[in-house]
Amino acid sequence: MNGHKLILVRESSGNRHYLADESVRCGTTLELQAVRYKYNNATDEERQILIDSWVSVRYEASLAGRAPENVRITLYTNVGGHLAVVEYWESMRFRWPRKDGD
Predict the structure, then answer these.
(1) Alpha-carbon distance 7 to 71, whole Å?
(2) Which residues contact 21 (CB under 8 A, 6 or more apart)?
(3) Contact partners, residue 29, CB within 8 Å, separation at least 6
(4) How buried is residue 79: exposed, middle or buried, by Cβ count under 10 Å (0-12/13-18/19+)?
(5) How far is 83 from 76, CA to CA, in rounded Å?
(6) From the CB of residue 70, how many other CB atoms can be counted at a distance below 10 Å?
(7) pTM for the predicted model, two decimal places
(8) pLDDT digits (tens, 9 = 90+) for 50-93
(9) Residue 19: which of 29, 77, 49 has the closest Cα?
(10) Where are the domains of the chain?
């Protein structure tokens, strides 16, 4: 299953991200879809392949009063007991956390 892109929407109250048609608020836990990289020797290119593995991240963003190109997303996760900051890329895919039984 592939995740979804974060969609930035300009509303009367300001900018807001949406994931799968639900608004995302700062501090929300999302799941980031993992990727692996495949290198093609013939073309000397590397590409991302989405895999069915997910990492929990905390979403934070600077949205207020910003033009879309100036919106900043920061993702936080725990790696081996250490807080890690992940740079957001447009190619990232997310999903809402799974509930027990999903």
Answers:
(1) 12
(2) none
(3) 56, 57, 58, 59, 97
(4) exposed
(5) 7
(6) 10
(7) 0.82
(8) 888 999 999 999 887 777 788 889 999 999 999 999 989 989 99
(9) 29
(10) 7-95
